[in-house]
Structure prediction request, 46 residues.
Amino acid sequence: MVAKLLVNLEQGMQQGLINNQTSGVAACARQIISLTRLFADSSYNH
Prediction:
């Protein structure tokens, strides 16, 4: 589930780059960063 979400976000970033949509790329990047932070916190707490 998480892997699929990351793949979808990555594909969104790629499409945004292709279509020169920087706001969409930035939104996807923020989501990836948030997920990464969440997983890092979760790993640290266990």
Observations:
- The mean pLDDT is 85.
- DSSP finds two helices and no strands in the chain.
- Residues 22-45 form the longest helix (24 residues).
- The CA atoms of residues 17 and 25 lie 7 Å apart.
